[in-house]
Amino acid sequence: MTRFIKVAFDLLHHPAFRSASGNAKAVLLELWSRHNGKNNGDLSLSYREAKTLLGLGQAAFSAALDELQERRFIISTSPGQFVGRFAATWRLTMIADKGQQPTNEFLAWVPRMGNRYASYGKPIRKARNGTGNRYAKPGFLVSKTLTPLEV
Predict the structure, then answer these.
(1) Whole-number pLDDT of residue 25
(2) CA 135 to CA 93: how far, in whole Å?
(3) Is residue 41 part of a domain?
(4) Integer angstrom CA distances of residue 107 from 11, 87, 93
(5) Which of 146, 138, 82, 61 is nearest to 111 (CA)?
(6) Tally of domains within the chain
(7) Rounded distance, CA 151 to CA 2, Å?
(8) Are 142 and 89 contained in the same domain?
């Protein structure tokens, strides 16, 4: 029988997932693929494995983990140790853990104002057309204020 990952549409269409970087999504799916139905909270992925399997360097891997934690997709259950070479272990919030329901903490995530995720992953930069929105056509008036989205 083939193993698979069941990804709910609520997760796929949530702003926290849609605006996540490709590296963060790759790390999330790799961690998720290691779940066997009983080991949520004991999922690990080392820097060396991330480099081999995903082609990520240490800085990119660390940034992806930070992004997944900030968006509440994963929670650290034990820190990693260089001495003894133990990788950190993680719990996925969208999966049930030891008889308890999933916490789905990512559903409470709201984009922070002023960061690059405030517009669902599109970088916020000055446009050459002077509107402040690089995706607007010249001559269009675009509001420069962003409001948090309702979850």
Answers:
(1) 96
(2) 34
(3) yes
(4) 8, 27, 10
(5) 146
(6) 2
(7) 35
(8) no
- Say which CATH number the domain at 76 has: 1.10.10.10
**Both tokens of residue 33?**
């693929």
Residues 64 and 128 in one domain: no
Q: What angle do CA 82, 71, 67 make, to 5 degrees?
A: 45
* Cβ–Cβ < 8 Å for 88, 67: no
In a domain, 3, yes or no: no
State pLDDT tens for residues 22-72.
999 999 999 999 998 889 989 999 999 999 999 999 999 999 999 999 999
Token pair in block for residue 65 = 């983990």
Max Cα-Cα span within the chain = 61
Q: Which residue has the tokens 């979850």?
A: 151
Q: How far apart are CA 3 and CA 5, in angstroms?
A: 7
What 3-state DSSP class applies to 78? strand
pTM score, whole prediction: 0.72
Range of the domain at 144: 118-151
Residues 151, 90, single domain; the answer is no
> CB neighbours (10 Å) of residue 143?
9
Indicate whether 112 pLDDT > 70.
yes
